[in-house]
Amino acid sequence: MDVDFLQPTSIEEALDLLAHHGDDAKVIGGGTAMALLLRNRLISPSVLVSLDRVAVLAGIASEDGSLRIGATTTIAEVATAPEVRAAHPALALAYSVVGNVRVRNQATAGGNLAEADYSSDPPTMLAALDATVTAASMRGTREIPVRALLVSAFTTSLEPDELIIAVNVPRAPSDARTAYRKFISRSSEDRACLGVGVLAVMDGAACQELRVAVGATCESPTRLGHAEAMATGNALTDETIGGIAEAYAAGVDVLQDLRGSEWYRRKVLAVEVRRALEEVRDGSR
Questions:
Q1: 20 to 30 Å CA-CA from 97: which of 22, 122, 184, 209?
Q2: If you classify domain 4-50 with CATH, what class do you get?
Q3: 59-169 is a CATH 3.30.465.10 domain
Q4: pLDDT of 143 higher than 70
Q5: Is the pLDDT assigned to residue 1 strictly greater than 80?
């Protein structure tokens, strides 16, 4: 089957192509995921809309600690950007452990979210940071929380004619500490068995706000409000941390695949949530 490879030079032109071709078109950014899907005949679009010539979609803008990451900014660029490291060091860490150096140099921030790979690292930390994406179509733009964007494994809430144009990370609250932990169960690959992203707002020893997102062990990044509330107004003692970790191990809808059974993943989840919480309790950021 012949595929038309189209290279628009503006967002408006790209959106027009998506609106015109509908379900027959697929967007390609860095192509690391798309190439595999095409090669294995999992998708068969008649049109590929490449974003490599839409220059305005690349780059990172920082304003008072808030970040706007262009959709075609590479994973490596996000991981190494001084403004990301300064404002959100755990987010930079999450991007730095994606795949391998070849993937990071090619894959894009927008494509990473649009693929909705449940074992990817950035979505988990982005969920903990209450990040959103800006999605555009010929009808206009809308802001979608990352947690609402990622519906399930390899499924998003994007409409067929919508395009992610930016990832938006709000300024972290004052006195916030963050952590990201990745657990790999198979030495032969770099995909996560579990990822844990944490943001804790501390007032001395007391925790004023806690966000804990877990990913890779479930179909989309998951936070448990009742477990997070266990920390509100309390010190992150070993007892409190242990209770939160066990609540996540019991409450997350855990999946199983080649990286681990449901039983195994629940055990790992309890351990890694505990370690992430200890990290923010004992650390400075």
A1: 209
A2: alpha beta
A3: yes
A4: yes
A5: no
List every span in the chain annotated with CATH 3.30.390.50.
176-282
Task: Write down the architecture of domain 176-282 according to CATH.
Answer: 2-Layer Sandwich (3.30)
In this prediction, residue 180 carries a pLDDT of 98
- Using pLDDT thresholds of 50, 70 and 90, give the confidence band for residue 188: low
Pair 207, 231: CB distance under 8 Å: yes
Query: Could you tell me the two tokens for 250?
Result: 């019991």
Residues 228 and 240: beta-carbon distance below 8 Å? no
